[in-house]
Amino acid sequence: MLKNYFxxxxxxxxxxxxxxxxxxxxxxxxxxxxxxxxVVVRFELGYNTSQLNYHRIYRVVTDTKNGDGSMxxxxxxxxxxxxxxxxxxxxxxxxxxxxxxxxxQVTLLGDNPNAAVASGKKxxxxxxxxxxxxxxxDIFNSKWLSGNPLSLNEPGNVVLSKSIASxxxxxxxxxxxxxxxxxxxxxxTVSGVVEDAPSNSDFPVKIFIAHDxxxxxxxxxGYSKEWGSLSSNYQVYVMLPPNxxxxxxxxxxxxxxxxxxxxxxGQRFNKFQPLSDMHFNYRYGTMGDHSSSKPILLTLxxxxxxxxxxxxxxxxxxxxxxxxxxxxxxxxxxVLGSSRGQLVAQSMGETFLIVLLAVLLAAGIARLSMPxxxxxxSVPADVNLFTTASIVFLAIVLVLVTLLSGIYPAMxxxxxxxxxxxxxxxxxxxxxxxxxxxxxxxxxxxxxxxLLIATIVAVSxxxxxxxxxxxxxxxxxxxxxxxSDSAAIGRMQPxxxxxxxxxxxxxxxxxxxxxxxxxxxxxxxxFDHKKDENYPVFFKYCDEDYMKTxxxxxxxxxxxxxxxxxxxxxxxxxxxxxxxVLDPKQAIGKVMRLGGGEWKPVVGVVKDFKANSLRExxxxxxxxxxxxxxxxxxxxxxxxxxxxxxxxxQKLWEQTYPEYAYxxxxxxxxxxxxxxxxxxxxxxxxxxxxxxxxxxxxGLYGLVSYMAVQKTKEVGVRKVLGATVGNIVVMFSKExxxxxxxxxxxxxxxxxxxxxxxxxxxxxxIHMGVGVFLLAICSSLLIAWITVGYRAIKxxxxxxxxxxxxx
Length: 807
Hints:
By secondary structure, this protein is an alpha+beta fold.
């Protein structure tokens, strides 16, 4: 019996090849998109879950409430907090400090610790270097390939991940006992090798350095024994005993805050952040290369479901439309004794066969798409598509889509009355198919237009971000590392002079960081001999040519004169507004003090520029000179002959700093990195909107094709009576135009709500005007008219003589 059902199902599919192809193509596209979304969402939700004590691990973070009501969120703690937490919280099962370092140079010395640095292989590691303690491996499980955690009790020891050990020494087994030099300063001995962290880990640590060596090189790596010093790099993690609720520790933590932050009492306080929250909390960030957002993941999952629903709608629409044509077959089967259950089983068998073909095709499409997935999501290219979870997911999709797509058409077909069916008295109207199809078409296009509006808004916002006036010139500014150790600091000016001899180099400036970066150095400050303000000032260190290099604009006063130390200060507009100075000229000659330092004169006021991303407001900023904190050199290049000039710059830099590895980027690349996730989301919206429109158009084409067959005689009569091709096209398209317009009315408020929420992530954002929605409806109508028009014109051009002879 079952074999017979599938044989008949296969014959019916072969008989209606066009409709079967439309159903399979729509379902396959939708299921493939849904499978890829499943891979992304599962990968992101799996972050850190490989840790054995996942639910018992917490990070101690620091919140600061400023006097103006603003909040600052920092993932770090003051360095002295480590020992204080150990003493005041004996109930912690484990506690460890992790001091992250980034943008560091590793020089391979091999077996000779006295080898010249200039002769060793030099590698820049942008991230993945930490100073930590043996307890790190008690909290975060790692597989040791050689050595043991206790080796990190000895200053000067370093543990490598397997991939880094193999990268440095050819085979990780050769790493033990080898020597490295970090930043031409720290001589390190390899004491162990551990297995790499999983790809979905917020702890992609590659190099573990003994923590205690920090105390000897505090200035270089931001380690301070002062409670008032707070760095996001110095983080503390704790593991609680089983079944201990961190809320029970809150009163004790409140007492801890009052005890150790007397100056900031009621303003600065620590709290416990669960490891499960770490990957999804932008406020504190992670030690990896990105954070994620549960609402965005939920949105992606919802989009996947909606696309599957759209593909199922196509199936339901075409199946109910075709049901009329199969009424005689059903009538005969009923007369010959087929029960309703048997008819339902046969119809569901046909549906299952179509969905099975679609699932197999979807798996192939997804497999071909996997190499490109990393371009639209933060998923490594080598992530496995066919896992147990994904196969189970496809099986569930197969069952659910079969039920969703097939149950209604099966009930309709099996419910035909034999007498009416045999007399061909069954019509679309009599089975309620027309009303249902209208509802489903409206639903389908509502989804498509929501995604289309989301795409238009996301693309417009990212275009706005790319073209926004940042208050400085980011174009053709090449950024290189600079070094301020005693051996390298004297080479700054000679390098600058040699660079300026090149006619294609406009300007050169040494600075702590470029004009727009993720740097947020801040300090308490006082202005005009008053007491300290109750909010921080952010600051940059740079030389006298910073303004020229980045095209900053002075509103009053002048730039400071050359100096190796801070002797004069430049402030921005925002700082003046916050201290109550309305006229920039009135600020000239006032004095300012950072921290507990000396009063320095304000000699200039610079127009506000975006020192961070457009997600943040412009902050009060002070700009000063201080050569020992210059970590970058910014070079403004002429737009002509860029490749040749950059090659010349590299040659000069390598001659000046032979003991360091060369690395560079352009300033606009830094700004692009700010919005990597938003850019990916924008691209995802484009892809899914395209898929939604494709599926919708498949459905429209199928319905219009069926209508054209059903109305063959009517079209012939109309043409004989003088109807033009245009009249015929209007007849086919007017109903769909109305349905798409109704769908638009439904889609607008939903899309506006969700995209308005998304735009709140940006302080500087576009306004969703009427134009966004007009573009969406016009695009939808145009695509639909093209889809309907093609098939309608084909029907309208048919010979009316043949049309009138059609049975």
